[in-house]
Amino acid sequence: MTRGEVRSVAIIGAGIGGLATAALLAKAGFSVDIYEQGKTPGGRAGLLEANGFRFDTGPSWYLMPGVFEHFYELMGEDISHHLRLRKLSPAYTVFFEHEQPVTITTDQARDEATFEAIEAGAGEALRRYVDQGEQTYRLALKHFLYSNFSTPRDVMNREVLRHGPAMARMAGTSIDRHVGGFVQDRRLRQILEYPMVFLGTSPFSAPAIYSLMSALDFREGVYYPEGGLYEIIRSITALAQKAGARLHYGKEATAITHTGNRAGGITFADGSQTAADIIISNADLHHTETRLLDRSAQSYPEKYWQNREAGPSALLLYLGIKGKLPQLSHHNLLFVDAWRQNFEAIYRDRTFPDPASIYLCKPSATDKTVAPKGHENVFVLVPLPPGRIPSDKEQHQLVTTYLRQIANMTGIPDLMERITYQSVFGPGDFSRVFHAWQSTALGPSHLLRQSAMFRTPNRSRKLSNLYYVGAGTTPGVGLPMCLIGAELIYKRLAGDHRGGPVDAIRQVGREGA
Question: Which H/E stretch holds residue 124?
Fold first, then answer.
């Protein structure tokens, strides 16, 4: 390549990680093309429109708003010009098998009073728990989440060393044990532990460092982008194209070619090929390594994955309901009494939990455009064991079982009779549509040995110009984590080894720049 020539980038997959990476690199002066197997962008964060309903097909909880704001700032944009965010009140309702529901408002004084009414001293305990979680979150943002851990300096600094003993204790303690040091009532413990589901792991296995998740709920609040979470995908797609990235749909990658220690290009299912100076895969990382690369180029072959833990698979239901459902808030959590057994069924026994802890989203509580007049839009997520795909008959029975459970726990006895539209997406669909390892809905779980510097790196060890972005690599699962992952790719290409977020995007897309 001639010095000063624009470097080309080919990205496999238009999930949020691929889109955000394309936007940042195009802004940095690279020539960027994204190749997406589907007809639309978004990947797991997709959109389903049917019978007047509009469903977000995956993520539905807007977390870590500061991460989104920072990404838009890097693109030279004000997020308020792209997303209209509404703070939810209440934030969510929690249903139990045998006790009255609990409403969380994210007005901390009110939530402390709610905790106190359930357990003496729990109000003050909640304040201490959130304070500690917020401190951990700020430390993580500054030194861990935006780090490629490429040099010892990434984690060896005064602030990290000062908090080192406390962080080490939390790393070696499970969330469940940590929460038990603050509150004892089962319901309150469940409320503080449930965010681990969003990280694809069990509170009995996840390190207590992830208590930072509760700081996001109770202090920052819970928000909803008007129009739904897919508006984020629309917006970032537009930003990538504005910066010069080109999107190609219906292009399923079947191989990443290489010569020696360098990737050369991508081969597609239609027989076509493309070449690029840099290849970035936003596809499932296990699929990329074990299916798109030949054995000689695999940094993480099948044997590597045998020692990793997948996050849960899921049964997703998209329901159109006739009439109103005043029992439900925008976000709703259904917790079973047998809390530990529920997680053991998923991660240890690999059985379908019955009853199950379930998440429901009713966006029509906030956004009237997502359902026809006189109807409600309901999204249901039931975590299921990874690696176990139910037969059609089993899946049908699971749908019936969980709908009955929802009706019983929420007090909507005629729920099933009022369903006017239903679509189901199960474990087999995650494997078929997304090539998902172990049919996981999220990616590798966030055990300590799969977090931070221990997570599968975002750069190939065999091919010097092959990179990874998305839930399978650093920093982890979820929309905001994938945005950070995109910035980590930019930092690698820019030679930025600092631990925190970058201040601005520099022009580094030319050879010798």
Answer: helix 122-143
CB 204 within 8 A of CB 347: no
Mention every residue, 6+ apart, whose C-beta is less than 8 A from residue 106.
87, 88, 89, 91, 217, 218, 219, 220, 221, 222
- Three-state DSSP state, 319: strand
457: Cα within 13 Å, side-chain hemisphere: 13
Q: Has residue 163 got a pLDDT over 70?
A: no
β-bridge partners, 358: 334
What's the DSSP call for residue 349? I
Q: What are phi and psi of 224, to 5 degrees?
A: -140, 125
**Count of other CB atoms within 10 angstroms of residue 301:** 13
Q: Which pair of tokens denotes residue 417?
A: 């009779």
Report the C-alpha gap between 234 and 96 in whole angstroms: 36
The H or E element containing residue 275 is strand 273-275
Tell me if 104 sits within 8 A of 191, measured CB to CB: yes
| Cα Rg of the chain, angstroms | 22
> Is the Cβ–Cβ distance between 277 and 465 less than 8 Å?
yes
Sheet containing strand 102-104, edge to edge, reads 102-104, 92-96, 331-335, 358-361, 375-384, 313-322, 419-425
Structure pTM? 0.96
| Other residues' Cβ atoms within 10 Å of the Cβ of residue 200 | 26
β-strand partners of 95: 334
- Neighbour-count burial for 261-300, b at 16+ CB within 10 Å, e otherwise: ebbbbbebeeeeebebbbbbbbbbbbbbbbebbeeebbbb
SS3 assignment, position 481: helix
The residue-averaged pLDDT of 143-157 equals 74
pLDDT of 125 > 70? The answer is: yes
Angle formed by the axes of helices 65-74 and 16-27, to 10°? Answer: 30
For 190-219, the pLDDT digits (tens) are: 999 998 988 889 999 999 988 888 777 888
Note the helical H segments in 54-119.
65-74, 108-118
Rounded CA separation 443/450 (Å): 11
**Residue 336: partners with Cβ closer than 8 Å, 6 or more residues away:** 97, 342, 353, 355, 356, 357
Residue 4 predicted with pLDDT over 80:
no
Which pLDDT value is given to residue 159?
A: 60
Averaged pLDDT for residues 474-488: 96
Q: Considering only CA atoms, which of 287, 401, 284, 409 is closest in space to residue 351? A: 401
Strands 31-36 and 8-12, by their bridges, are: parallel
pLDDT digits (tens, 9 = 90+) for 12-61: 999 999 999 999 999 999 999 999 999 999 999 999 999 999 999 999 99
Peptide bond into 195 cis (omega under 30): no
As a whole number of Å, the end-to-end CA separation of the chain is 13
